[in-house]
Amino acid sequence: MASSLGAIAARRATSNLTRLSSSPHAPSSLIQRRTFSASADGHHGPQRINIWQDPMSPSKWKEEQFVLVSLFGWGLLFTGAYKFFTRGKKNDDKKLVEAS
């Protein structure tokens, strides 16, 4: 029985293959569709520009450049805050060692 089921499946696959290859038009199930991709002819939203072309308008920057500038700014903020709040501690330690 298993061999007869295999034979039936093979015949169906062969008949489907010959039917598809002999038809001049491909069936709609085999046509590739790009329904969720963006259209090639138009833009979606405003045109993005480089940072150096308009540095005072972050909403117009390209996303990658905005991320890099934002990370750089946060790094400067944290580094500056760390140096500001810890600048006096190193000098006090040196003075205590010298006094004793």
TrEMBL record:
<keyword id="KW-0812">Transmembrane</keyword>
<feature type="transmembrane region" description="Helical">
    <location>
        <begin position="66"/>
        <end position="85"/>
    </location>
</feature>
<keyword id="KW-1133">Transmembrane helix</keyword>
<protein>
    <submittedName>
        <fullName>Uncharacterized protein</fullName>
    </submittedName>
</protein>
<keyword id="KW-0472">Membrane</keyword>
